[in-house]
Amino acid sequence: MTQTVSYISLSELLHQTRAPESIVCFDDNSEITWQTFNDDFSQLVHLLSSSPFQRVAICTEDSYLFSVAFLASAISNKHIILPGNYQPCALAELSEHFDCLLVDNSIGTVEVDDVRNIQTLLDSNTKTSTFRANALALIDLSKVQLTLFTSGSSGSPKAINKTLEHLDIETAQLNKNWGEMLKSNQIHSTVSHQHIYGLLFRLLWPLCSGVPFARHNLEYPEQILSHANKNSVLISSPALLKRLKHETKSARLAGVFSSGGPLPTESAHQARSLLGQLPIEVFGSTETGGIAFRQQESAQTPWQLFDCIEAKLNSENCIKLLSPYIDKNNWYQTADECEMISKNQFVLKGRTDRVIKIEEKRVSLVEVEKRLEQLPWISECVVIPFEEPQRLILASVLVLSDEGRATLAAMSKGKFWLMLRSELRKWLEPIAIPRKYRVVDEIPLNSQGKRLTSHIEQLVKS
C-alpha cells in the first residue's frame, strides 16, 4: 500500500522526494496520494497567505483535511489554535483566541465572526495556485506557535503554548523508539488529532515517516477487529481497548499504542490475546508531551522515561521533569505522585489536583461546577467522581436557587434533570455531564470552610 520513505523532520516534510502516487491517507473506499495532498496543501497556502488573520483555529473530525490545514497554517506562519472540544458553545467561548476558525462538515453552526469550511475552500478555489510545496521555504519550527486547549484546574479551558519545534523533537523521539514498527505499515486510530497524543501519533509521525494514516477514527471494538491486519498499527485509547473484553474474534496487528489514562492489566492482556500485541502505553499530558512508556506484563510493571527526559521528585513525591518537549533548560513540576524505582523508572501513584480522567478524557471538576452554577436554577454545587460497578461517572450535589426550587416543584424530577443535562450539553462533552444528582439545603463544610468530601460522597450514595 505504501513505499518506504525515510523519516524526515517536520521542517523538511514538504520538500521530500516522494513518489506522486504514494499514499498519504486512506479511508474504507479511497486513497489520497502525495500528489493530491500537495495540490490541496498548495491551494490552502495560497488562500491563507493572502488572508490578514494571524491566529487560525482548526477543528475537524476529518484527519486529512486537518493535516492539510495544519501544515498550510504552519508554512503561512500562522499561530495555530487547537480547541479540544467540538461543542459549538465551547468553540464560541474560545473565539477571543483566534481570528478565523477552519472546520469540516462534522462541526455544527458556531457563532463566531469568521468560520471557513476547509473542503468548501478547496472545492471553490478553482484558480491554479502558483505555490508549489517544493518551492516553499523551509518551515522555521521555532517560530510557528501552537496553542492547544485542555481542561484546566481553574474551571476554564487551559491554553498550552508550544512551538512546532517541540512537536518535531517529540516526533523524532517516537521514531527513534519505534520507527521500525511503522515501516511498510499503515496507521489506524481511535483518537482525535485535536489532542496532542493523536496529533503526534496518528498524524505527524506517520507524515514524517511516509506512512499512510486513516482519514477517520475507528469508533467501535468490532471496527478495530474488522480493520486489523499484520500491516496496521493501532493508535488507541484505553477506553476502546477496555471494550474489547466482549469480543471473541482475533486479528493480528503490527503494533498497538495506548495513551490518555491507565490501561487495566486485564485489558492489556486481552488486547494481546485478540490483537497479537501487548499495547505500548505512553504516559504524559498536553503540557508535558510524552514522559514515559511501558508494556504492562503485570500491574507492577514500572514506567520507563524517554531517554531525552530527566525526572526527580519534589517534597510531596510529585514528579518534575527536564524535557526538550517543554523547556530543555528549566524543570517542570507535575501534579503526578510517583515512586522512583531507579533513575529512569517509576511507579505512578495518582494525581493531586482536581483534573481527572474519565475514559481517557480530561475533565475539570471545577469547570463542571462552574457550568452548573451559571444556570439560573443552581446557586451552589459540588461535583465529585463516583465509582459505579462498571465505570467512573460524575455526581453532583446541588443547592437550588429560588427559581430552581420553583421549577423543580412545577415539573417532575426526571424532566428537571433532563433540562439540566440539555443545558450542560451546550458547554460540556457528554462524558463531563454528571449522571447522578442530589439536592441539599447546603453543601457540607468543616470548621475551616472546606468541603467535607466524605459527607458529600455519602450524600451521593444515599
UniProtKB/TrEMBL annotation:
InterPro entries: AMP-bd_C, AMP-bd_C_sf, AMP-dep_synth/lig_dom, ANL_N_sf. It holds the Pfam family AMP-binding_C. Residues 18-298 form the AMP-dependent synthetase/ligase domain. It comes from the Bacteria. Residues 367-450 form the AMP-binding enzyme C-terminal domain. Transmembrane segments: none annotated. This is AMP-binding protein. It comes from Vibrio artabrorum. The lineage of its organism: Bacteria, Pseudomonadati, Pseudomonadota, Gammaproteobacteria, Vibrionales.
